[in-house]
Amino acid sequence: MEFRRIANDGVLRYNDNIACCICRKGRFNMTDKITALYCRLSQDDMLQGESNSITNQNAILKRFADENGFRNPVYYVDDGVSGTTWEREGFKAMMADIEDGKVGTVITKDLSRLGRDYLKTGELIEMVFPDYDVRYIAINDGVDTFKSENELMAFKNIFNDWYARDTSKKIRAVFKAKGQSGKHLSNPIYGYKHSETDKNLWLIDDEAAEVVRKIFHLCIDGYGPAQIARILTEQGIPTPTAYALSQGRDNGHKNVKLHRWGNETIAHILEKAEYCGHTVNFRTHVKSYKNKKRVDNPKEDWLIFENTHEAIITQQEFDLVQELRKNKRRPTKHEEVNPFSGICYCADCGKKMYLCRATSLTEDQEHLKCSTYSSDKDACSAHFIRTVVLNEIVLNELNKLLVMVKEHEDEFLQAAMDNSVQKQSSELAKAKKALKQAEKRIIELDRLFTRLYEDNVSGKISDERFAVMSEGYENEQKILKASVTDLTAYIETAEQKSADVTTFISVVQKYERITELTPEIMHELIEKIVVHAPDKSSGHRTQQIDIYYRFDVAVSTAVADSMKYDKKRKAA
């Protein structure tokens, strides 16, 4: 911890930031012990008005030091820092001077300024300070370790701790209520900024939002966080921290490389549903009011409010990225993203097939090979498929799909939903009707229970009759509640299937004709491609290819014929 003396303004600085001010006449004499005047103000203290303000504390401490003849007063200040944490720059600077033997006396306005953790505060006053021959004074609490022991000091420290605990509990309650109301619990993330008229409203920051879109599109194209980080760094795009500082904002991140993007930064951006226009609250929580370390909450505890602000990316793009992140795809050594990477599987063993390419292989010789066979030749067959052949097959099938959807949308919709909604449309309508009737009957049974109980109490119905009838009503209600649960799940599944098919059709309609396979196109439309072992019974090599489209809307089967492809290529 290094200090730098600025002679012309009498200020002691720490890492170019003001840590403390020297309030005395004359030059600093290292032979004289420092009188440390420690001031601390937290956000909770600010609610109490000016009594605990830094200015007020400074005045009290200076007056006390002057009146009691304490020499070499030096201020150590922590402004806006909780007393339950000891990670305070001013406090750490003071302790460094104490450990170096520079400090003779520590003075605070009261015990709570030193800290609100009664165990740590007591340890400092009764063990640490005496070890370094440091006198401690808390003015308002009448504590002076030089004069005598204060029996009430321990109790005052406990009360300060209780105060911190109670304040923390109240803040958490306010925080929880705010989060449950759908308001943002944090400052705007990278890509957004506060509205000038409404601090709870996030507005798009156009410059940063373009970078966010670039990150998502690169991921869709098959690049991972490491590759995206390298691309952004090479292009000289400012990091979120560097950008915040350039806009006159401090996002709180210290000791970071301002112009070098990190993998984790990219990964965090790709995980933020806020970019779809949603508010996500309660992602994390702190362990306790003393331990400020944040811990991730399980996703089921998150509270998501949809469409609370303008989206930077579409929900479809976000969902696609999350799917891609589950099956990570990496660029090859040739710095190209293979469009078939991560989605081709062996029909025999079910494992992924990987790309085989080298400088010694021509484009026509590059191929996908079963990963199982490479590691264990007895576990699977040695089949492979050339990428140029597979590319032609998939291109042809995708364009057939485009035509089908555009010209026969109704038929495609029916086929896609054949095993779910469309086939069971009448059942779905019946399920909704049954659900409504069940919910209505449950309410009626509650009223019957009430009347039955009143009749039993008044003597209109005997206890025996009451027991029989109530048991019947309870059994009926139990069955109805179970039915409601099943019907609700069935309806939600069916309606989700319908929404998925609609989403798929909207994606297909973006394209007129596909002339080149890109990772984005592949990942938007195809779930997986299954490659079968070759069949040579016809005299030349053929392979069955099964293409499974996203959301299980359809499966197309084609036959890859390497000989036909070679003839076509030679003719061209």
What distinguishing features does this structure have?
single chain, five-stranded mixed beta sheet, Rossmann fold, 4 domains, Hect, E3 ligase catalytic domain fold, alpha+beta, 572 residues
List the SSEs and their pairings:
Layout: E1 3-6, E2 11-14, E3 17-21, E4 34-41, H1 43-46, H2 54-67, E5 73-79, H3 89-99, E6 103-108, H4 111-114, H5 118-131, E7 135-138, E8 143-144, H6 153-180, E9 192-194, E10 202-204, H7 206-220, H8 225-234, H9 240-246, H10 263-271, E11 279-281, E12 284-286, E13 294-296, E14 303-305, H11 315-326, E15 344-346, E16 353-356, E17 367-370, H12 371-375, E18 384-386, H13 387-407, H14 409-416, H15 425-458, H16 463-508, H17 519-525, E19 526-531, E20 542-549, E21 555-561, H18 562-571
Parallel strand pairs: 4-5, 4-6, 6-7, 15-19
Antiparallel strand pairs: 1-2, 2-3, 7-8, 9-10, 11-14, 12-13, 16-17, 17-18, 19-20, 20-21
Helix pairs in contact: 5-6, 7-11, 8-10, 13-14, 15-16
